[in-house]
């Protein structure tokens, strides 16, 4: 039962990650689809917190290590970003919530939505990276015996994707969006949406890679 619940949690996290990735090519997929994917993200977000309600109940209890403190801070920031993204998304909606209108709120809602989307990409990727051990354990159970060769191949692939993620981060000017130097996302409509999403996936892998190894260092710090 415990393993099934863990599997469901991981599947929901994968679903949220997929939704976040699909939300980035906004104009390339169309407004209507963007809004429905946003709704799916919101439903998965609620399900995620319901399944993790025991963790939420222990936030104010127990001793805080560096790892736990950063992990909790990331979860809280992600919660705020998600709420900001949902509220601003509703105000910007032309389809699902088209009847909701607050005069003079459009530009502010647009900037908030963009800020939450890009920082959400970073924070969620860090969050996933710091929890990646769970995925590693589950994948390890698929094999009867551990393999050093398999481990190093997986690490090599992760490094290659992370290196490409640095290139994609610069190419897509994600740093400028995070710092709000650019207030509009510019799309090349001649580009395949698959190439666009591949670059953003590589950026997510890069940030998760950083989160994973930063988490390992934090756990070592605890033992000193």
Automatic annotation (TrEMBL):
UniProt name for this protein: DUF4405 domain-containing protein
Biological processes annotated in GO: respiratory electron transport chain
Keyword annotations: Membrane, Transmembrane, Transmembrane helix
All residue ranges annotated as the Flavinylation-associated cytochrome domain in the record: 75-132
Biological classification of the source: Bacteria, Bacillati, Bacillota, Clostridia, Lachnospirales
Superkingdom to which the source organism belongs: Bacteria
Pfam families per record: DUF4405
InterPro entries assigned to the protein according to its UniProt record, in alphabetical order: Di-haem_cyt_TM, DUF4405
Protein species of origin: Agathobacter rectalis
Record-linked SUPFAM superfamilies: Transmembrane di-heme cytochromes
Residues spanning the membrane: 7-27, 33-51, 72-92, 112-140, 152-170, 193-214
GO cellular component, one term: membrane
């Amino acid at each position: 039962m415990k393993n099934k619940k863990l599997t469901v949690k991981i599947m929901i996290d994968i679903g949220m990650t997929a939704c976040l990735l699909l939300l980035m090519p906004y104009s390339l997929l169309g407004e209507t689809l963007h809004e429905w994917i946003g709704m799916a993200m919101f439903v998965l977000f609620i399900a995620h917190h319901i399944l993790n309600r025991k963790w939420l109940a222990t936030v104010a209890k127990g001793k805080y290590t560096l790892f736990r403190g950063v992990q909790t801070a990331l979860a809280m920031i992600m919660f705020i970003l998600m709420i900001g993204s949902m509220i601003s998304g509703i105000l910007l909606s032309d389809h699902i919530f088209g009847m909701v209108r607050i005069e003079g709120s459009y530009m502010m809602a647009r900037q908030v939505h963009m800020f939450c989307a890009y920082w959400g990409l970073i924070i969620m990727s860090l969050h996933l990276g710091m929890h990646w051990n769970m995925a590693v354990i589950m994948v390890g159970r698929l094999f009867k015996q551990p393999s050093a060769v398999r481990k190093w191949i997986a690490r090599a692939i992760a490094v290659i994707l992370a290196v490409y993620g640095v290139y994609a981060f610069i190419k897509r000017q994600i740093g400028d969006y995070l710092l709000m130097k650019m207030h509009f996302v510019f799309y090349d409509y001649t580009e395949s949406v698959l190439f666009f999403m591949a670059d953003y996936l590589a950026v997510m892998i890069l940030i998760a890679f950083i989160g994973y190894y930063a988490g390992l260092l934090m756990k070592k710090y605890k033992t000193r």
